[in-house]
Amino acid sequence: MIIDKKGRLFGKISIIDLIIILIAIAVLIVGVRFLISKKAKAPMPGKVPGTVYYTLEVKNVNEQFIKELEKGDKVFNAIRNNELGVIDSIKTEKYSFLMRNFETGTFEKVFYENRYNAYIRVKADAKVDVKHIHVGEQLIRVGTGVAIKSKGIACNTWIVELELVEDEQ
Q1: HSE of 135 in the Cβ direction (CA atoms, 13 Å)?
Q2: Is the pLDDT of residue 9 over 70?
């Protein structure tokens, strides 16, 4: 008989003990596979230098703010005071928002006079690895909010565009 009256398999080991041992072996196998697969997919050791262009969006600014921005000005993190790069170009568009028209029940685009959205393209030397791009201590990723300052300005911005340029060697 395979299982005796006491619930032991071949009269030597109980079924509950056997189930516990099999579960422990399965957990061990899964753990080893998890650790081995992580080593195979590990990012590059260290970070590689590269050049990055990223665009900062500033909404609802006045004309004086736009006049303060100049190509070639350095941009700094307003909190940590780290350099974030140099202004490469500046584009502007009229500031607008959607407003509900209660008469028609629709939303209409409304433009503010003397208010603008500014798009500041910044060129920076970055440290790049498989998953991250850093300029100084600042993580550069689309959607990241960055408090910046430059000559004559300080504001909160959002990174809306990112271009990594491979360095020529």
Answers
A1: 23
A2: no
CB-CB contact of 83 with 154 (8 Å)? no
Predicted model pTM: 0.67
Tens-digit pLDDT profile for residues 93-121: 999 989 999 999 999 999 988 999 999 99
> Do residues 62 and 79 lie in contact, with contact meaning Cβ atoms separated by under 8 Å?
no
Which residues contact residue 135 at a Cβ distance below 8 angstroms, ignoring those fewer than 6 apart?
Answer: 52, 82, 83, 84, 85, 124, 125, 126, 127
Whole-number Å distance between alpha carbons of 121 and 92 = 11
Q: What is the identity of the amino acid at 165?
A: V
Q: Mind listing the pLDDT tens digit for each residue in 40-92?
A: 444 445 667 889 999 999 999 999 999 999 999 999 999 999 999 999 999 99
Sorted by where each begins, the domain ranges of the chain are: 8-40, 48-165
What is the C-alpha radius of gyration for the chain, rounded to an integer number of angstroms? 29
The alpha carbon dihedral of 129, 135, 138, 142 has a sign of: negative
The structure tokens listed for 169 are 């060697």
Contact by Cβ (8 Å): 98, 110: yes
